[in-house]
Design brief:
372 residues; Aspartate Aminotransferase, domain 2; three-stranded antiparallel sheet; 12 helices; binds pyridoxal-5'-phosphate
Length: 372
């Protein structure tokens, strides 16, 4: 039984008539840039998040960059974030001319360790980017308190967390968050896409100008901006998929709980930790094991595909070597990077397949160590 890590085809087939008709409508109208499809998706996304405004942009990466720009992050500033994220989080900071300052993560949740933030704050610190990694929200209340005390901006990197909740509060938990619509994400486009969601109209206004060359009218630009719009075609696809997101999230959670149940007695595996106040949306189902390479290889031989998000922490990425961090600076992030492994958890994954995957994992741990 071949089981991919994600199965975008299965999801497409489950909603094919709706998607095909939305795409056909765009082709018939030949209005490919901005216009009604983008506006409609933005309105529906804002409604889904119970948020004032949503602005569609070309990717999660551009959403991070444009939001930081809109908040005025510039050369000489420092922005606090975590080392266990996708490189885009740090890139956006660097692209603004600012310096990423990392804070280690909590070993249980793999989210920012809120007790270690304040020691990293300097007079140059302007913002914190908490990363809601894997689909679980960071402990936002202490972060909001620290930000208020030190007059810092918070931009939530929710690229992996659309639909997640914190103490029954929806994203953005504070003021502004970003989403990625990379195809494999819980809400995935058929290409690149992203959004900034915010309760702050001034920020919404700025992002919406910055994404479209600073335009104030067709031929007049008020500020120097960028070409980072969301395509109408992607907006139309996302609008169809948004209607299914809650149901898909429930299915992801059901699959995660089934894994938890079947794996809870496997001593060599640490199953994901979900905070009691959190609604985790399981973009990925991440376990920890000291025998990752061997388990990954064993499962691949059985045609079960797994993934690692992410094997190299940001502070030791070659691209960020100019920051002069070194191995050993963030021991928790480094430790978990060596142990994490993601199993398929996509909504269309059948219960039989979860059983098959867990049976194989259990079998793997029954093999004497010398054989694996
Ligand atoms: C945590 C995080 N931030 C930012 C991004 C960037 O999003 P995109 O790939 O849409 O540019 C990603 C994408 O994987 C991500 O996982």
């Amino acid at each position: 039984m071949k089981i991919p890590l994600v199965d975008l085809k299965a999801q497409y087939l489950s909603i094919k008539p709706e998607i095909d008709s939305a795409i056909q409508e765009i082709l018939d109208n030949t209005s490919f840039i901005m216009g009604e499809p983008v506006k409609k998706f933005e309105e529906n996304l804002a409604k889904f998040c119970e948020c004032k405004q949503a602005i569609g942009v070309s990717s999660g990466s551009s959403a991070l960059f444009l939001a930081l720009k809109a908040y005025g992050i510039k050369e000489g500033d420092e922005v606090i974030t975590v080392p266990n994220s996708f490189i885009a989080t740090a890139e956006a900071i660097v692209q603004c001319g600012a310096k990423p300052v990392f804070v280690d993560v909590d070993e249980k949740t793999m989210l920012i360790d809120t007790t270690k933030i304040e020691e990293k704050i300097t007079p140059k610190t302007k913002a914190i980017i908490p990363v809601h990694i894997y689909g679980q929200i960071c402990d936002m209340d202490p972060i909001i308190e620290i930000a208020k005390k030190h007059n810092l901006i918070i931009l939530e990197d929710a690229a992996q967390a659309i639909g997640a909740e914190y103490k029954n509060r929806k994203l953005p938990i504070h003021e502004t968050a970003i989403f990625s619509f990379f195809p494999a994400k819980n809400l995935g486009a058929y290409g690149d896409g992203g959004a900034v969601i915010t309760h702050n109209s001034e920020i919404a206004n700025k992002v919406s100008k910055l994404r479209d060359h600073g335009r104030i009218s067709k031929y007049e630009s008020g500020i120097v901006g960028y070409g980072e719009r969301l395509d109408a075609l992607q907006a139309a696809i996302l609008d169809v998929k948004l209607k299914h997101l809650e149901e898909w999230t429930s299915k992801r959670r059901e699959n995660a709980f089934k894994y938890n149940d079947l794996l809870k007695d496997v001593k060599s595996i640490e199953i994901p930790f979900e905070e009691s106040y959190s609604k985790h949306v399981y973009y990925v189902y991440v376990i920890r094991t000291k025998k990752r390479t061997e388990l990954m290889k064993y499962l691949k031989e059985k045609e079960i595909f797994t993934g690692i998000y992410y094997p190299i922490p940001l502070h030791i990425q070659p691209a960020l070597s100019f920051l002069s961090y070194k191995e050993g600076d963030f021991p928790v992030a480094e430790k978990v990077a060596k142990e994490i492994l993601s199993f398929p958890v996509y909504p269309e994954l059948s219960k039989i397949r979860v059983d098959y995957i867990t049976d194989n994992i259990i079998n793997f741990y029954k093999i004497p160590i010398a054989d694996v």
